Amino acid sequence: MAVVAHISDLHVGALAFRPELLVKVINEVNEMNPDVTILTGDLTENGYYMEFEKVAEYIDTIDTPLLAIPGNHDARHVGDQCFSDIIKRRCRTLDLKDKGIKVIGLDSSEPDLDYGKVGRAQQEFMEKELKEAQDHDLYKIIALHHHIIPVPKTGRERNVLSDAGDILQSIIDGGANLVLSGHKHMPHVWMMGETTFATAGTASSLKLRGKTFPSYNTINIDEDTIEIILRGTDGKQITLAKYDNTCR
Ligand SMILES: [Fe+2]
Ligand SMILES: [Fe+2]
After folding, report:
1. What is the CATH number of the domain that holds 233?
2. Which residue range forms the structural domain that includes residue 108?
3. Looking at residue 90, what is its pLDDT?
4. pLDDT per residue as tens digits for the range 164-222
5. What are the start-end ranges of the H helices in 75-224?
6. Which of 159, 168, 164, 209 is nearest to 186 (CA)?
7. Phi/psi of residue 91, nearest 5 degrees
8. Which strand (E) or helix (H) includes residue 75?
9. CB-based neighbours (< 5 A) of ligand 2, an ion
10. How many angstroms is it from 40 CA to the middle of ligand 1?
11. In the chain, N or C terminus with fewer CB closer than 10 Å?
12. What is the pLDDT of residues 121-160, one digit of tens each?
């Protein structure tokens, strides 16, 4: 049915940013030609205008439909305004009706804070979009920077959404099929009810935990199954999970 490329935590501007990795990832994705590429935040390290300009140069070379949302690092130093100014292709939802998919992007960042919050206005927006997608029998993907369910092997939990419980309830009630996040730089997949929650690692930085490596995910969605594949920038490929795709 569809292929999704999920890239996160570029951290352009960080000392640990590796531009050659980002170029490699973008080249691979363009070659793969997925139906959509989703960037789940921390595109920059500090939210500086110049960093966003650099990010824009990179993501302008992505050939596929794209949805980019901000992370906590992007909201530093009034970066939330720079994000809106420069990341032109940012949008809240992306309808891929020919593929039967709707992507709903949420901004979970708060200015100058590391923790995340979706907030009631966006929660209502998401509920409305999920209902509309359900009415049109679309596959429903939610993208946000902060994880909603804690991620293993990431130390003490500090940055889960402050309204995680409410958002999780709306996601499950709204029958979302797939939720994509970043933030912890730790690839992982949870399944709750019939919703798959996939977090991606950092695609192009060495801000790594333990023995993890820079990576991104691709997701193959078909009528019967969903498969999440971790792709290391060193060429390593690991199937993170494969589930029956029943929630439609
Ligand atoms: Fe990050
Ligand atoms: Fe983050």
Report:
1. 3.60.21.10
2. 2-244
3. 61
4. 999 999 999 999 999 999 999 999 999 998 899 999 999 999 999 998 999 999 999 99
5. 79-86, 120-135, 164-173
6. 209
7. -155, 160
8. none
9. 42, 71-72, 183
10. 9
11. C
12. 999 999 999 999 999 999 999 999 999 999 999 988 887 8
pTM over 0.70: yes
Distance (Å) from CA 145 to ligand 2 centroid? 7
Whether pLDDT at 248 is above 90:
no
CA of 134 to the centre of ligand 2 (A): 30
Total tally of structural domains belonging to the chain: 1
Q: Which two tokens stand for residue 213?
A: 């490596």
What is the identity of the amino acid at 93?
T
Distance CA 24, CA 21 (A): 5
What span, in angstroms and rounded, lies between the C-alpha atoms of 45 and 188?
22
What does residue 179 show for φ and ψ, rounded to 5 degrees?
-120, 125
Contact 10/39 with Cβ under 8 angstroms?
A: yes
